[in-house]
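It is worth pausing here to work through a concrete case rather than discussing structure prediction in the abstract. The textbook approach is simple: state the sequence, then state the predicted structure, then interpret. We follow exactly that order.
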Amino acid sequence: MTRESILNFSQGHAEPKWLQERRLAAFDKLDDLDFPMIERVKFHRWNLGDGTVTDSPEVASVPDFIQLDDNPKLVQVGTQTVLEQLPAKLLEQGVVLTDLRTALEEIPEQIEANFGQAVAYDANKLAAYHTAYFNSGAVLYVPDNVEIEQPIENIFLQDSDSDVPFNKHVLIILGKNAKVTYLERFESIGQNTQQATANICVEVIAGAGSQIKFAAIDRLGENVTAYVTRCGSHADDATIDWALGVMNEGNVVCDFDSELIGHGSHANLKVVAVSSGRQVQGIDTRVTNYGRSSVGHILQHGVILERATLTFNGIGHIIKGAKGADAQQESRVLMLSDKARSDANPILLIDENEVTAGHAASIGQVDPEDMYYLMSRGIDQITAEKLVIRGFLGTVITEIPVKSVREDMIAVIDEKLDKR
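Step two, the predicted structure:
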């Protein structure tokens, strides 16, 4: 881990001076910063990066399983971009969907103004590590008053036969009153033979009055140890509807945050997670209300199989001055094994009067009455369990904007159940 390796990588990719300086400042902060606080998850000794910053090998073509339909789409394998697809109409409106290096050339002012706005490089040790060592990224920029009807899809594939770190930075910038539906997938491909790390940061900068429906499915492999942070920064009356599926096979800690800075801003965070085998998944979902009459709702549903561990931390924080704010949260977990472990921790921090706040949390097993009802109508136990679990997780699955991806998520859940 040296400053020289970071500087050489940055200069080799012709990054602007401000980004070089940001990387080096983050590196200099590493020893002084603490790990992010993920309550009741012991991840501090996990290998979350070895100080390597390099490119992955070039890829000849788009993987066969990627559907080459006509919707706006970007596909990356490792650090390499293998497909960019954006209709001419959107190009004419000023929409940008490309890799980060190209965006630094096409819209340099927008990148410099917004990079790190939602996740500061010195927020914690893993954020600083990411800023210093990220090796690829992507940008979606939607100018003021542009509404995009087709879902925009970003697919990021980690080669599980490679030990190149999967350190990805995704920046989404929405102008005033912009409107878009966005789908994101992080997935491992290959034979899953190499131990690897991932440090993924997704920033959503939502301008005044903008709206984004943000759906994501994470399916990193069992040999990938990952830290994933997604954070939205909301201007006045901006709305981000998050639907996040955490379906990884390896150990993962996640930070999902919404900063409701603007007055009248909204965040709806819906998270589903399935933990299986012996994996550990810790998920912090946080909404911080700064603006007056801002609304932040958290809904987390999880299923645990075998000897896995799943922790949900829901944090609602209403800052002094955020009068009329609303912070609600619900975390529920289904346990399908008596050897599994789970925590559902509701946390409310209220620093203002004249606000609304509430929370609910529960951990339990499949309702035997539901099972009895289904099995009494000729459905076998395994199929009955699948139906109950689909219903339990359906509040998020139905928010995924692309039918084929919804079907993929259901297939992943069924696959995990069938492995028991």
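Step three, interpretation. The chain has a mean pLDDT of 94. The radius of gyration is 21 Å.
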